[in-house]
Design a protein that fits this description.
Chain A: InterPro entries: FUZ/MON1/HPS1_longin_1, FUZ/MON1/HPS1_longin_2, FUZ/MON1/HPS1_longin_3, Fuzzy. The structure holds 2 protein chains of 2 kinds. Chain A is of the alpha+beta class. Chain A folds into 3 domains: about 5-135, Beta-Lactamase; about 150-280, 2-Layer Sandwich (Beta-Lactamase); about 295-420, Beta-Lactamase (2-Layer Sandwich), CATH 3.30.450. Chain A has 13 helices and 16 strands. In chain A, the strands form 3 sheets. Chain A has a 6-stranded mixed sheet with strand order 6-13-12-16-15-14, with helices on both faces. A 5-stranded antiparallel sheet of chain A has the order 2-1-5-4-3, sandwiched between helices. Chain A has a 5-stranded antiparallel sheet with strand order 8-7-11-10-9, with helices on both faces. In chain A, helix 7 (about 155-170) runs antiparallel to helix 10 (about 255-265). The radius of gyration of chain A is 22 Å and the shape is globular. The chains are: A alpha+beta, B alpha+beta. At the A-B interface, helix 1, strand 3, helix 12, strand 14 and helix 13 of A face helix 13, helix 14, strand 11, strand 12 and helix 35 of B.
Chain lengths: ~425, ~950
């Protein structure tokens, strides 16, 4: 075995097969392997058979995608213990491509003139892509998988909303957003009109740039304006609280930083401090969950927003006779896996607007003649319950102590209580 | 009973019995005077030499299938229906017995004549056939003649009616025989199987039918006899006394018939126009109309099994990419020719050529992924002609099996099961993939994979058997692809629980056979070592396993073979006249498990013998070389063993009535039809409201006594179901009840005799839910006779209940809890025995509705997903010693999905369509016995699947 654990991402030019970059695992695949991975796809393409993915008995997978006939992305997961599903790899490739467009613009990627220069330019994407490959400490962020913006529901949003609207207007823009720990707390109406992948990536970009107090970064919107760059102005208000706007040539970073930020946000510092503390453990401070719920993911299908709420933290000392609760990171992993399971088999994912003309992935749910509404799984670690309404999707992880027959009522109650209390 | 052998001792000496050898034996046998036994004179072996002997291949394999469409009872039933003559079951039995007896007696008296006939037949087929048809008349013909006699009796009121009958003719079958001469009946007899005796004054010509046409020498072609097992007799619609008027709309007489028939170039279906006698004409015409324009054509499946023209079937799927390839991974430095690495490939269509073109991908991926990830590739997906194609891989040694299938037929999560299934089938049949894909096997493999792909890609074309099984309605029109996929890949066989007394008898008969210690099976008989040791056998009735004496893995092997050749549906849809299959097999149990220390199974060779007669089919696994004498080379079937199995089956036929009764019995746990839960529209405001009201009304009913369950449901469907069950009931021969189809269930329910009013009230309330469903039939008709095992059997608890209460318990076999019977469907697999139970096809057919078939399809599709989830979490069993940590979700114990359905054509614009929600839940139990349970029930009552599985399996006689 040549490759270490984890996912490796390969990027090549589609026409000539020149490697552009490779991210992921510390141990790189040898060039011959990269060459053959690209070769089989090219060979198939020439014969009218477009290879999309393959799988081994140990759960290792390879997924191929060509974007705009110019860039080939290949994701290789090694399988073993950390199984990565096909959906996750596909989302990873799409997000990687979008990241590349976000930073470099579609123009430069579609018409590759100087490969060496492109290689150099692509280095600026590495941070973003690495973030995609390894979300790091904050595992409850699911936007890369769900294509829905991770949100946070502050108890008093109107105050923040007003401040943000005024700030954005003053910055000569209509796109503004306040992020707390990488999650959207409030955003302007126009910001929500952006395609959900863009919102996810912009949040990701802001998270990547944390550490500096402010920055001015040119971005191409992968769907909205892939060829014309905008300026993303980002200001850190507090550690973990950022405000950003998308704007044109004006105002300058200096002007915005010195004048606008102070004017609009200093009155709210107390509120923000409080909010930061309140949302330390949960993005929805106003809701008390059933104690047996380990974690949940709530998606608003209409607005493409998602909430990932952790449940009761695992007990420090496991009691006798009670199976130990999964650790916090395991919970998020399970939730991600359950989401993938339910989406690939029963429910439809967010961007079901226009199914692609060429189906690269099989849609198992097409085979059902009746509509799946709920589904549940009982495993050895926990119980999972998923439900879908026209407006929402809820994925819930419960402890084994919760009786199976109670899952449904708990899930529906949780959904109604959250939506009723927050209007999510 | 003493069975006599039909062949010479020479054939039992252990020498390989090749085709030539067998024929020699036959010739010798005709000269010797071995006593004809009572058995060998029975209607299936009234010849000297078994019919299948000619079909034994050089390697000893035999696949002999002969249909008896419409022979025997079926033909009689139709004939009697046409004549409005009612044969009761008893009478028919008597006739059969008489016929057999007479035939047997005649044969016993004149064995030499029969031998002579056999000899003649071999020399000159048509004459022999004539002799057989007229001389030692088999009972089926006798019966037809009996019918014909009645014809004659009733002739006065009869009028002549024209009918069209389609028969399948294959002139190629005549190729082996010399050209039939007109004197011996010509093509009419040889090809069609109709005996017509020329010349004026011969035959029983009816007055007034104009046997001789004025002015011409041409005679009308009156059917004077039918050659057994010929297309004419198989069709069941050509009766003695009919007059053939036209062939494919060409008018025929005795003059031109030979010319017309000789124009048939190849195997084809022709339409015969016959003039027949029928009273009034109306009923017959109606009958024919219902049966879809007459007689059955031979189904595509049978033609495929016969190895006849598969080109048409293949054309139909040519545009769908599918292929199988067996590739060599060894890369020679100097390839001598272009496609050297392809050891085998099928089919040769454009789409599959494209897959063949990219075989480099498969080879490279297989090699590379092993190097990179350390795992074996199992699947890949590619887009071919805008269709997603999944490719499954199986590596064995230096070779790679690649199977490409369209994703809309086989979902990715099930691809591996399909590939594993085909690999195991090939291994069972040939020992290993390498020996399967050798050059010599190529035509056989073509046939194998033709069946494989046809079953996966267009199952409907195969199954659209033109005849519907008589009592039950036709199988659902749209094939349930997921259902076949799911049920076939379960490592289990469909089991039919039988009433204990029948079960015991069946088992006894099978055990007697397996003991092989009587007659010429015993070693003492010839004082020599026996040829084969019977390892075990299993018995199918209409495709349901009813007895199994094989170890689980062997059963699985046998069933894989049967499934692949669609033998199980064959027995339920078509009436198998005779099926004899013989081949060497390589049971995987021996390959999979290394022998335990201290004991090794003998290194023998194993043979599979499958014999089917009508609806019964017995599979026998034989071992040679252990206790039996060793064999060498290619071994053909041994007559003695085939005949013994036949005898067993004939013996078991006596029990068929009991099995049929079991099939006709109402479903053991009551089933509901999904359509009953959808309000018909009027009066009820939306599905939600209706659903909410259901339990409350029942509760009310409970309190108030027999409040009619009527408010609950506008009951056209229910009365329909009741009349349906009435039919089944009448046939079953239970209590006779005056029960007009229009009577409501209520009035019917008041009928049951010998129940006090309080008990009645209790039953009504208890069973009201059930009776709303199929319980209407269940509770009503169950009471008088409770023969088959009751999954609801309460064991010791029963003692503490009063007799009446137990009776009530028994009368409402309800799996679901709550008042309503909410159970729609279930599948319970017992992993240890390798069997599963599910509602029978007939149960399902009775619950016809518009939504219900959809629901079943959906259920099966969902089960695919549920089982895939279970499989992923199971520890790896046999595959390549891998550790499969799938999905990372961990072992899944239970998985359920809630579905919502709406009526399809909801026209009411004002109100939203009513909806019905139901659960599909799968549960895997490892303790106390491994089981998998899949159930589908209405949403109104929360169920605990474990309990349901327990209730269902408890007391299940296996």
């Amino acid at each position: 075995m040549l490759q270490a654990e984890g996912v490796q991402l390969l990027c090549l030019t589609a026409s000539s097969g020149v490697p552009l970059f490779s991210r992921g695992s510390t141990k790189q695949l040898p060039f011959s392997v990269i060459g053959s991975l690209n070769g089989v796809h090219m060979f198939g393409g020439g014969q009218g058979a477009l290879l999309s993915c393959c799988e081994t008995d140990r759960g290792a997978r390879v997924v191929w995608r060509v974007f705009r006939d110019s860039v080939m992305l290949i994701a290789v997961s090694s399988g073993g213990d950390s199984t990565v599903t096909e959906l996750q790899l596909c989302r990873l490739l799409e997000n990687t491509w979008n990241c590349m467009v976000l930073v470099l613009g579609q123009e430069e990627l579609s018409n590759v003139r100087n490969v060496e220069r492109l290689k150099r330019d692509l280095r600026s994407c590495y941070r973003l892509i690495d973030q995609l490959l390894d979300p790091g400490d904050d595992e409850s962020v699911m936007g890369y998988l769900t294509n829905c913006a991770d949100c946070l529901l502050p108890p008093n949003p109107s105050l923040l909303q007003e401040a943000l609207d005024a700030f954005t207007q003053a910055a000569d823009s209509e796109f503004g957003c306040l992020l707390i720990r990488g999650r959207v707390a409030v955003a302007t109406e126009k910001w929500w009109r952006l395609v959900s992948q863009e919102v996810v990536l912009l949040s990701l970009l802001v998270r990547c740039m944390s550490g500096t107090t402010s920055c001015d970064y040119p971005v191409f919107l992968p769907v909205g304006s892939p060829t014309v760059a905008h300026r993303l102005l980002r200001f850190q208000l507090l550690q973990g609280v950022d405000v950003c706007t998308l704007c044109g040539p004006a105002p300058s970073l200096h002007h915005a930083k010195t004048e606008l930020v102070g004017r609009f946000w200093s009155p709210l510092m107390e509120t923000l401090h409080g909010l930061l503390a309140q949302t330390q453990h949960t993005p929805v401070p106003s809701i008390a969950l059933h104690p047996d719920i380990l974690a949940l993911l709530l998606i608003n299908r209409e607005t493409s927003r998602s909430l990932s709420v952790p449940g009761r933290p695992p007990a420090v000392t496991p009691q006798d006779g009670v199976p130990p609760l999964p650790s916090s990171s395991r919970r998020w992993e399970l939730l991600r896996l359950f989401y993938t399971f339910a989406i690939t088999r029963y429910f439809t994912s967010g961007e079901a607007a226009a199914p692609p003309a060429e189906p690269l992935q099989e849609d198992f749910s097409q085979g059902f003649c009746h509509t799946p509404l709920h589904c549940y799984l009982v495993t050895e670690e926990c119980k999972c319950y998923g439900l879908q309404t026209p407006q929402h999707q809820l994925f819930l992880l419960a402890a084994l102590t919760m009786p199976t027959f109670a899952l449904r009522s708990i899930a529906t109650q949780t959904l109604t209580s959250i939506t009723a209390a927050t209007g999510f | 009973m003493e069975h006599e052998r039909m062949c010479e001792p020479a054939s039992r000496s252990g020498a390989p019995l090749s085709r030539e050898a067998a024929e020699d034996v036959g010739d010798v046998g005709s000269d010797t005077t071995s006593t004809a036994s009572s058995y060998s004179a029975s209607d299936y072996s009234d010849e000297l030499e078994p019919e299948w002997l000619d079909e034994v291949q050089r390697n000893g394999e035999l696949f002999y299938l002969e249909l008896s469409e419409g022979e025997e009872e079926e033909a009689r039933a139709r004939a009697s229906a046409a004549n409005h003559v009612r044969f009761s079951e008893q009478e028919a039995e008597i006739i059969t017995e008489e016929g057999r007896h007479r035939a047997g007696g005649a044969a016993a008296v004149t064995p030499r004549l029969k031998r002579l006939a056999g000899l003649l037949r071999r020399k000159k087929r048509p004459r022999g056939a004539l002799n057989r048809g007229d001389g030692s008349t088999p009972p089926s013909i006798l019966k037809n003649q009996a019918g014909g006699a009645r014809h004659a009796g009733q002739q006065q009121q009869q009028q002549q009616v024209l009918k069209d009958v389609c028969v399948y003719l294959n002139p190629k079958r005549l190729a082996s025989t010399p050209h039939p001469s007109p004197e011996s009946g010509g093509l009419l007899e040889a090809l069609l199987g109709v005996v017509h005796r020329g010349g004026p004054g011969t035959g029983a010509q009816r007055p007034g039918t104009g046997a001789q046409r004025p002015g011409t020498g041409a005679q009308r072609l009156t059917v004077h006899g039918l050659v057994p097992n010929s297309p004419a007799s198989r069709s069941g619609h050509i009766l003695i006394g009919d007059v053939i008027l036209a062939v494919d709309d060409v008018e025929v007489t005795s003059e031109n018939i030979e010319r017309v028939l000789s124009c048939i170039p190849g195997p084809t279906q022709v339409k015969l126009t016959l003039e027949t006698a029928a009273p009034g004409g109306g009923p017959l015409a109606g009958d024919e109309g219902v049966r879809g324009g007459g007689s059955p054509a031979v189904s595509q499946l049978v033609r495929l099994l016969w190895g006849e023209d598969t080109a048409e079937l293949q054309m139909a799927v040519a545009h769908i990419p599918h292929a199988v390839m067996y590739l060599s991974l060894r890369l020679d430095a100097e390839p001598t020719h272009e496609e050297q690495e392809i050891l085998y490939q099928y089919p040769v269509s454009e789409a599959s050529a494209q897959l063949k073109g990219v075989r480099g991908i498969f080879l490279t991926l297989c090699d590379m992924l092993e190097n990179v990830t350390g795992g074996q590739i199992i699947s890949s997906s590619l887009l071919l002609r805008k269709q997603l194609v999944h490719v499954g891989y199986w590596k064995e040694g230096e070779h790679l099996l690649v199977v490409g299938l369209p994703s809309d037929r086989v979902p990715l999560i099930y691809l591996q099961s399909v590939v594993e299934g085909v690999v195991r089938t090939l291994r069972v049949m040939y020992g290993s993939l390498d020996s399967a894909f050798c050059e010599a096997n190529s035509p056989r493999l073509d046939h194998f994979f033709c069946l494989f792909f046809q079953q996966l890609i267009q199952p409907s074309r195969l199954i659209d058997s033109p005849t519907s099984p008589p009592p039950a309605p036709a199988p659902p029109p749209t094939p349930d692809v997921s259902g076949t996929l799911f049920l076939d890949s379960l490592p289990a066989v469909r089991w039919l629980t039988l009433p204990p007394e029948i079960k015991v008898e069946v088992d006894t008969v099978l055990s007697d056979f397996e003991a092989a210690d009587f007659g010429d099976m015993s070693e003492d008989f010839y004082g020599m070592r026996r040829l084969y040791v019977t390892l075990g056998s299993c018995l199918f009735y209409k495709g349901y396993l009813i007895a199994n004496h094989l170890p689980k893995e062997d059963l699985r092997d046998v069933c894989l073979y049967c499934q692949h050749y669609s033998l199980l549906p064959l027995a339920s849809h078509q009436r198998v006249g005779q099926l004899v299959i013989w081949r060497e097999v390589f049971p995987q149990r021996r390959a999979l498990h290394s022998p335990l220390l201290g004991y090794a199974e003998p290194q023998g060779r194993y043979f599979l013998l499958i014999v089917g007669l009508r609806h019964l089919m017995q599979c026998v696994l034989l071992e040679a070389g252990g206790c039996g004498s060793p064999v060498e080379g290619a071994v053909g079937p041994d007559c003695v063993y085939v005949d013994q199995v036949k005898a067993t089956l004939l013996q078991l036929e006596g029990l068929e009535a009991g099995m049929e009764e079991r099939l006709n019995a109402p479903p053991a746990p009551c089933l509901s039809c999904a359509d009953w839960f959808l309000p018909a529209g009027a009066g009820l405001a939306g599905g939600q409201a209706a659903r909410d009201r259901l339990p409350s009304i029942s509760r009310l009913a409970n309190a108030l006594r027999p409040l009619p369950p009527r408010a609950r449901r506008p009951s056209p469907q229910r009365s329909l179901s009741d009349s349906g069950s009435e039919g089944g009931h009448g046939e079953g021969g239970g209590t006779v009840m005056p029960h007009s189809p229009s009577s409501t269930p209520d009035s019917a329910r008041k009928m049951p005799p010998a129940t006090s009013s309080s008990a009645f009230a209790r039953r009504d309330s208890l069973g009201s839910g059930g009776s709303d469903g199929s319980g209407g039939s269940g509770s009503l008709f169950r009471i008088p006779r409770l023969k088959h095992p009751n999954p609801f059997y309460l064991g010791s608890l029963r003692k503490s209940l009063t007799e009446r209460e137990t009776e009530e318990m028994n009368s409402t076999l309800k799996l679901s809890s709550g008042l309503e019977n909410t159970l729609f469907h279930y599948v319970l697999m017992e992993s240890v025995q390798g069997v599963f139970i599910a509602p029978t096809h007939r149960d399902m057919a009775q619950l016809s509705g518009s939504i219900h078939p959809q629901l079943i399809r959906n259920f099966h599709h969902c089960c695919l997903s549920i089982r895939a989830a279970f499989q992923q979490s199971l520890p790896p069993r046999e595959r390549r010693g891998m550790s499969r940590q799938h999905g990372g979700l961990g072992p899944v114990k239970e998985h359920g999905v809630l579905f919502q359905c709406k009526p399809e054509n909801w026209t009411d614009q004002k109100r939203p369509a009513p909806t019905m929600t139901y659960w599909v839940i799968g549960r895997m139990l490892l303790e106390p016995i491994p089981q998998e349970f899949y159930v589908c029930f209405h949403d109104s009552v929360p169920e605990v699947p474990v309990e349901m599985a327990f209730r269902l399996s408890f007391g299940l006689a296996l």
